[in-house]
Design brief:
Blueprint lengths: L5 E9 L4 H13 L4 E6 L3 E3 L10 E10 L3 H14 L14 E7 L4 E2 L4 E2 L8 H10 L12 H10 L3
Helix pairs in contact: 3-4
């Protein structure tokens, strides 16, 4: 735990069961964690899944939180929420009842085996950037130096 408040942007998504209810429940659970305050949230967007695994479309959104928790503590708590909601460890790009990813943590750049900030593929993902462009259009990516709006427009144009 840290004493300073950090602004963190999360990606949330679901493609099993009642996707919207799952996303709403995840946001509610985030709100119930000591040291986390949900500040803003995007709309939810239906998107095609990545990879070659046959599965339903995802419902995705972005959430802005303020927190006193360190990134590793956030990751642990978010994984607990996923597991408590019924997520099974099936591998990358597989169906999941809930997925919570740390996209940005202030302007931190962090590379660890289990956690990379900013999220290493967020700049390629329409569904991530659409939500971020909605709730944080002027936030600058700490590696690419572009705003979320600029990155979203680049992905939409297919030029990234």
């Amino acid at each position: 735990m840290q004493s300073d408040m950090a602004t963190v942007y999360l990606g949330i998504g679901s493609n099993i069961g009642n996707k919207e209810a799952n996303c709403e429940e995840a946001i509610c659970r985030l709100s119930g964690i000591a040291g986390i305050q949900v500040i803003a949230r995007s709309g939810f967007y239906l998107t095609k899944p990545a990879g070659d695994v046959p599965q339903e479309d995802f419902l995705n959104g972005a959430v802005k939180i303020d927190t006193t928790l360190l990134p590793e503590d956030c990751l642990r708590l978010f994984k607990d929420i996923e597991k408590d909601m019924g997520r099974e460890e099936t591998g990358r790009n597989h169906p999941r009842i809930m997925d919570i990813d740390i996209l940005l943590y202030d302007d931190m750049i962090l590379k660890k085996d289990n956690l990379m900030i900013p999220h290493p593929r967020m700049h390629e993902r329409y569904f991530v950037l659409r939500g971020l462009a909605e709730i944080a259009p002027g936030i600058v990516h700490p590696v690419f130096g572009k705003t979320m709006r600029e990155m979203y427009e680049t992905v939409v144009s297919g030029k990234f």
